[in-house]
Amino acid sequence: MTDKTYRAVLFDLDGTLCPMELEEFLGGYFKDIARYAAEHGIDAEKFARAFGAGALAMSKRAPGGKTNRDVFWDVFFGSFDPDEADWEGLFADYYDTRFGAIGANVEANPATRRAIDALVAKGYPLVLATQPMFPRRAVEWRLEWADVADAPFRYLSTYENSTAVKPQVEYYAEVLDHCGLSADDVLMVGNNALDDLAAAKLGVDVHLVTDHLLDPEGRGLEGIDHGTMEEFAAWAESLPACANPAPIESEVR
């Protein structure tokens, strides 16, 4: 890995900090939330179509303007009357009481904890730059599955606070702007050669973790800094203390 010094480290979540196969996780998630809707008297098939359409709209959205949350609800309410149910309450209850069980079989990688602990001990501010298509509570659950829920992330990207998605370069620009960072300040650590490598278009250094590598366009890893999470943890443990940590104002968690 590079010998360059950084002022902060950005992390992807699914497949990077949290060891999971993304398609398997998303399939289970979509089925479970549709079952939950049915248990509350909502047509499961209609709900699944509306929920999927909202998710697709977020993934295909143009950057800027509305938050991803608002993009989702605008499309969802094309199928359902906003007054048909207490939608906000239903979704909040789902993420509070049900979503967490989806990760019951996730086995946290001890190397992830080692890497996070090493960076924190050496004063490197942490930012969670995860695909912002989930509400904050779902992001917090996935941090729990990864055994890093107590890590002092200064900022978490969620569908409530983001107006772009990966691999749009505007997503990374928004994260950097929110945190008061420049591209030269940070290292982006991810596992997706499309979504996470997009940060490099701004001049951000990117390291890809290969344990659950995704390469949707078959780019390959030539010229990309990469390695296992175990190797990344060893690198983090070898770093000197952060000489000039970025003064990112922490969110209230």
Write structural notes for this entry.
With 253 residues, the chain is of the alpha/beta class. The protein has helices spanning 22-39, 44-60, 68-76, 87-97, 110-121, 136-145, 169-179, 229-238, and strands at residues 8-11, 126-128, 153-156, 186-190, 205-209, 225-227. It has a 6-stranded parallel sheet with strand order 3-2-1-4-5-6. Helix 6 links the parallel strand 2 (126-128) and strand 3. Helix 1 crosses helix 2 (44-60) and helix 5 runs parallel beside helix 8 (229-238).
Q: Could you tell me the strand content as a percent range? A: 5-15%
Our Rg estimate from Cα atoms comes to: 18 Å
The overall average pLDDT, rounded, is: 96
Helix content: 25-40%
Main sheet specs: 6 strands, parallel
Query: Tally the helices: what do you get?
Result: 8
Outline type: globular
What ranges have pLDDT less than 50 throughout 5 or more consecutive residues? none
Structural class: alpha/beta
The end-to-end distance, rounded to whole angstroms, is 32 Å
What is the succession of H and E elements? EHHHHHEHEHEEEH
The largest beta-sheet arranges its strands as 3-2-1-4-5-6
Multimerization state: single chain
